[in-house]
Amino acid sequence: MTTATPALPTVPQTAKKRNANGRLRALRRNRLAMTGGIIAAVFILVALLAPLIAPYDPSQPDFGNVLAEPGAAHWLGTDDLGRDQLSRIVYGARASMQVGLVAVVLAFVIGVPLGLVGGYYGKFADGAISRLTDTMLAFPFLVLAVGLAAILGPSLTNATIAIGISQIPAVIRITRAETLRLKHVDYVGAAIANGGGDGTVLFRHILPNATSALIVQATVGIPAAIIGEALLSFLGLGVQPPDPSLGVMLSGAQSFLAPAPWLAVFPGLAIVAATLAFNLLGDGLRDVLDPRGGTR
Fold first, then answer.
1. Parent domain of 221
2. pLDDT tens-digit profile of 89-114?
3. Considering the domain boundaries, does residue 67 fall inside one?
4. In a domain, 29, yes or no
């Protein structure tokens, strides 16, 4: 009786695995990217575990500890209502991560299909989608987000929608460019010659090979969304008091910059750390994943 020998991996599978391992090693050697990834992971973990990490209720005032300096009881001090700054920053990070991740997902859900259609079919579809994209790109990202948030009304949900819509043009352009490049490669032509339909070509051959550029775009979009949420909340168009947000905290700190500078310093540092972390991670991923640029 003979036993079946396990099938050896095919050459393409082996090559893909070797390529993925090489990219992973290259990413690990990039210290700035790894540092950014670790800090970004910490922010996401803090956002998920905010109720367990925050030492106090972030919205509960304590009028006996108004504007308390950083110390053992309140590591980052308290605000003008005696609310613990550390707890509010932890919950503010949750709002920032929520907007950053959900807004990018929203932009991808709408932008990726439009970019695929425009790049693959061309002609009228591409012209219409390109004109829509150009019209939205005529407005700076933050200006468009502020305008949409003002129309939708002030809330965290509406701020997320406004920021997500504002990021759609960039996603469309990246997806369209990758589709235009990939639809002329040999394996796409072979798939069409073998009778593959448009859906098969788009979602089994083009989209999977465009994921590298889309992942890099996501790491660029998240810090932009974090800054956008902070700006909208600062202007009163995002998170509404007494709910905590880094932008709301900065807005409330304006009147106390001299007597209590920690009210602005710590939320500002949190925004800088979060955005810098995702930008460093995105730079590292671009260097590793983008075959047309970056270092190897």
1. 38-56+81-289
2. 999 999 999 999 999 999 999 999 99
3. no
4. no
pLDDT, position 274: 96
Domain membership of residue 15 (yes or no) is no
* pLDDT per residue as tens digits for the range 234-276: 999 999 988 999 999 999 999 999 999 999 999 999 999 999 9
Number of domains in the chain: 1
Establish if 210 belongs to a structural domain: yes
- Give CA angle at 239 (238, 244), nearest 5°: 145
Q: Closest Cα to residue 174, out of 102, 103, 107? A: 107
For the cut 60, the answer to whether the pLDDT of residue 33 exceeds it is yes
